[in-house]
Every structure is written in structure tokens, then in C-alpha cells.
Amino acid sequence: MLSLNTIDLPEIIDGLPNISGWEKEVLSVVNQDAPIFLPSTNIKLEDVNAVFAIALHMHQPTIPAGSGGSLISHLQYMFEHPNEGDNHNAGPFAYCYSRMGEFIPELVHQGCNPRVMLDYSGNLLWGLRQMGRDDVINNLKRITCDSTYQPYVEWLGTMWSHAVIPSTPIPDMKLHILAWQQYFAAIFGWEALARVKGFSPPEMHLPNHPDTLFEFVKALKECGYRWLLVQEHSVETINGESLTSKHLPHRLIARNSQGETISITALIKTQGSDTKLVGQMQPYYEAKTLSKQKLGSIFVPPIVSQIGDGENGGVMMNEFPSAFKQAWWDMMHNGGGKSGVVGVCGTEYLELIAAAGCKPEDYPTCQPVGQYQIWQRVSPDNCQPEAVEKAIAELKQINPNFHMDGASWTNHISWVQGYENVLSPMNKLSSLFHEKLDKLISTDTAESITRKSDYRQILLHNLLLQTSCFRYWGQGAWTDYAREIYQRGEHLLQA
Questions:
Q1: InterPro entries under this entry (predicted)?
Q2: For 108-123, what is each residue's pLDDT tens digit?
């Protein structure tokens, strides 16, 4: 590990989350190829028939609703306004953010072999610190930084402020990814950041426009990510068909309108009622119905991958704790939790099958849904942006349901249609941000610029405006919040 371990990053600078200024150090730490789980895993592939991996997604947006309009976590707002809507759930939500720090040590000490993947937005982590909820952060630190529990827990990277990727301005994708990585390192340390190799896109929203997808995958790879989680119905085979090997890792192919291609490993999140499936530990019971499958020339245990909100709804708040514990007790009594059907972390599984001789080239390939129709119309030897846009326009004319908004786990909602009043300011603020700052950042003194508080303040507003909640939670107060953040960001840029 690098000597950077001795450099402690401040978590908060001038009242702002530390989301910029150490980009070179972050990229140096995350772009290392050493195995993460292989040296410590207690699972042997030959003893296992099938595996499952569950991830818990946690998020609370930042809103301008504190004292004097200050930026606070929506969780804080819930505590302060308990009689509005379901705000009475603030306490249970806060406990849900913390409880894995209790469940994992408890199960390990009982002789179980638990696994969990955690996906927390950057602004949720910042909000917990703003609220003085050090109890929650310390519980998470326990299972993240204590070597006793590291083999059982994997953090997944995400966009800092829960921006859905297809409608995020392309130049801001990497800013979100890096901001999350840096803030995570500030809380949990460089060594913990070096272990974050999987990525969880907010709302499982995968871009299907060729150029957006290409830039997203490129940014992920530049930021050291090895794999991402994708929703089953958001991808198709290269021939435009539904996936047939959804319990095997895939190679997601991204091809842009210039004809360039890039790829990254994808674990397939199967369809279904996400929170209910995770809350009742369905992936474990589904894995019990599976047996080894051929990948390349090797037989490997298939993987059932699932993610759901970690706090939202009665199932997660009330049923999940007992279901979670019961599943690991059941495994302990059937093979000691290390044989038959077992839980894994995503990176652990990929490292185990790689050690057995599987290569990414052996994985079945996939691409975002809808791309097959584009590439049918665009010849590989004439791959130009104009040809791709022409093909997209023709497809929209033939089929009114064809779109390049991407697909997500809330597929009945468009993140674009009807939200022009949020998207226009969002795109405008991003454009103003890059117009003013990109030339400065491209100079040799870029890092000193991104360490300045005024830069961090502008970046924060740019990223916050892209939070999906300002669209997902409907018109009214939420679009008002977005308008306020836009106006403050514009004012900062004009200063």
C-alpha cells in the first residue's frame, strides 16, 4: 500500500464536505491491481455449488431547508418535522444506516460467515456527520476499518449525490465518482478506499445512448473500478435478445458513435421487487435452486445478485433483520457457511473465479437495451456521430416507445420527460461551471484550484443539483429546492 496511508484527509473543510483537491492521490490509490478479498477469503470455489450477493442502497438528499435556508440532510429535516408525511420514520431510518455495524460482528462471533455490500451516497454520509450522528459513522467504521470484519463487508462506489447517470452531463460523471471516492477516503481512510472495486449506479440506471455509456464506462475504469451492478432488463445480448445466463458475470460492451469500444465486467441484478427480495433474503433461497455452470472451459458456481433500499419500507425496517440473521444461521448449520450455497461479496466472487482460470473474455457479452437496433442501422466502417443520431431519430419515428433515456429499476418513470424545469437549469449550471473552471483546472496548478473552498462550494452546488430526488419525488417543494440550489450555484459562479 502507498505511503499515502500516513496522509489523513480532513473530512470537512470550511463547513463543506471534502470532495475535491486530492484527485491525483485518489487516482493513485484506486488504480492498483492487487487482489482485495483473495488473500483473506475463507471460501473455496470447489466446495461451493452456487453463491449469492446482496447490496443495501442507502441515500438521503441534501436540501436547502435548514436554518436560514442552509444545506441540511433530508434526514435532519425529517427529525425536525416529524408530523409531515412519513417523517416519523426518521429514527428507524437512522438505525437502518447503522445496524450493519452491529449485525456483522454479532454473526461473525456466532460462527457464521456473513456477507453484505453497502452503497451509501456521499451526501448521506455528509448529512450524518452534519447531524452529529457519529454513532452511525463509528458503527460503519467498525466493519470497514477493523481487519476482523473486512472479509465480510464490501463497499460499492456510487455517484456522490445520487445523480442518475443517463441525464447527468457527461463532464460531471467523473466529478461525482471522484468526489465520492475522496469523501469516502476522508471518512474511512485510504486503505478502505483501495478496496472499493464495484460500482452501484443510482436507481440502477444504465445509460443506453452510445456516447453517454462509453464515457460512463471510461470514467469508471479511469477511477479504478473493476465491475458494476446492472439491472437485468436494462441490458440485452449483442443480438438484441434477453439474457440467458443472468447468473454469470457479463462483459458490458460500450461502443460510441466514433466506433471506439470499451468494456467492463457487470454482475446482473435480477428482476423483481428489489426491497422485498433483499428484505426476505430471496437471493439465498434462489441460489439453493442452482448448480455450477460452465464459464469458458471451467465450471463455476453461479451468482444471484440483488440490491434494494436498505432502509425504505416495512419489509426492510421490520422483516429484514430476522431474515438476514436466519439465512446465515441456516448456512452455518448446512456446510458451516463455507460450502454448498454461500454468500459472497461481488469482488470476492470475481477474484475467486479469476484465480480458477476464468478470464473476462470468457464472460457472455451484453450491451444496454436498444443498442442492437442502432448498430443494425450503422455500419461499422461508417460509424460517425451523424450516422448514429440519424439511426436514433429513425427508430424514434418508427417506434414512439424507443428512447435513449436509459433503463432503471423504476422503469415506469422517465427521468427526462416532464422534468425540463429541472433539467434545463441542471444542464445550464453544469455548462457555466465548466465554461468558467475547465481552463483553470487544465493548468499545472489544477490541484491547488480544486483545493480552494470557493471551487469546492461551486462543485458542491453543481453536484447537488443533479440529485435524482428533485425529479423522483415530484413537482412542488422538490423542484423548488432544485431552483434554489441552481440560483445559489449561478450566484457563486458569477462572483
A1: GH57_Enzymes, Glyco_hydro/deAcase_b/a-brl
A2: 999 999 999 999 999 9
The answer to whether 192 touches 155, Cβ cutoff 8 Å, is yes
| 324: in domain | yes
Decide if 159 contacts 464 (C-beta within 8 A): no
So what's the pLDDT on residue 416?
A: 39
At residue 427, the pLDDT reads 86
pTM of the full structure: 0.94
Question: What's the longest Cα–Cα distance across the chain?
Answer: 65
Are 493 and 433 in contact, with CB atoms under 8 Å apart? Answer: yes
Residue 284, domain member (yes or no): yes
What's the structural domain count of the chain?
1
Q: Which CATH number does the domain housing residue 226 bear? A: 3.20.110.20
154 occurs within a structural domain: yes
What pLDDT sits at residue 407? 39
Q: Which is it for strands 340-343 and 293-295: parallel, antiparallel or unpaired?
A: unpaired
The 3-class SS string of the chain reads CCHHHHCCCCCEECCEECCCCCHHHHHHHHCCCCCCCCCCCCCCHHHEEEEEEEEEEECCCEECCCHHHCCEEHHHHHHHCCCCCCHHHHHHHHHHHHCHHHHHHHHHHCCCCCCEEEEECHHHHHHHHHCCCHHHHHHHHHHHHCCCCHHHEEEEECCCCCECHHHCCHHHHHHHHHHHHHHHHHHHCHHHHHCCCEECCHHHCECCCHHHHHHHHHHHHHCCCCEEEEEHHHEECCCCCCCCCCCCCEEEEEECCCCCEEEEEEEEECCCCHHHHHHCCHHHHHHCCCCCEEECCEEECCEEEEEEECCCCHHHHHHHHHHHHHHHHHHHHCCCCCCEEEECCHHHHHHHHHHCCCCHHHCCEEEECCHHHHHHHCCHHHCCHHHHHHHHHHHHHHCCCCCCCCECCCCCCCCCCCCHHHHHHHHHHHHHHHHHHHHHHCCCCHHHHHCCHHHHHHHHHHHHHCECHHHHCCCCHHHHHHHHHHHHHHHHHHC
Cell numbers placing 457? 462550494
Q: 251: which 3 cell numbers?
A: 462483459
What pLDDT does residue 383 have? Answer: 85
- Which domain, by its residues, includes 30? 3-367
Residue 48 lies in a domain: yes
